[in-house]
Amino acid sequence: MGEAPEGLLVYSGDGTMAGIMGPADRPRFASDDVTGGTNEERARAFTTFVAYGGGYVIDGTSVVHTVERSLFPNWIGTSQRREWELDGSGDLLVLTSPPLLLGGQVRVQRLTWERVRR
């Protein structure tokens, strides 16, 4: 996702979650057609963005996301477990993945999310 990824992670009180993330500087398509774009533009957009949502439960030091919808269709119907840590202020949440296949390499992702108060 580059040096400056941006995203949105939402956990609601009813057990619903949604997460989206991509690099801050994602290239725009040449056209404003939402379902258009060249094959290269669509491939680049897909490989530089993560989006999924569904239910969640807290299980000790883990949060388990039950994926109902996902940009990556292979995750639909799966459970995605992440270890979580919350800082003392309650404003920084760190989620750590198990080893995942990303770009042909197995990696552990450690994402820090900052609470935005609206």
Concise account of the structure shown:
This protein is mainly beta and about 120 residues long.
Count of separate structural domains: 1
Helix/strand structural class? mainly beta
Calculate the terminal CA-CA distance, rounded to whole Å.
Answer: 26 Å
Number of strands: 9
Average pLDDT confidence is 94
Along the chain, the helix and strand elements come as: EEHEEEEEEE
Largest sheet, strands/sense/barrel: 7 strands, antiparallel
Order of strands in the sheet with most strands: 1-2-3-4-5-6-9
CATH topology-level name: Lipocalin
Measured by DSSP, the beta-strand proportion falls in over 45%
Low-confidence stretches: none
Shape: globular
CATH class: Mainly Beta
Number of helical stretches of at least 4 residues: 1
CATH architecture: Beta Barrel
Helical amount among residues, as a percent range?
Answer: under 10%
Question: How would you describe this structure to a colleague?
Answer:
This protein is mainly β. It has one domain: Lipocalin, CATH 2.40.128. Helix content is 8%, strand content 49%. The chain has one helix and nine strands, in the order ββαβββββββ. A seven-stranded antiparallel beta sheet has the order 1-2-3-4-5-6-9, with no helix packed on it. A hairpin with a 2-residue loop joins strand 7 and strand 8. The longest helix has 9 residues, at 39-47. The protein is globular and about 45 Å long. The chain starts with a strand and ends with a strand. The mean pLDDT is 94.
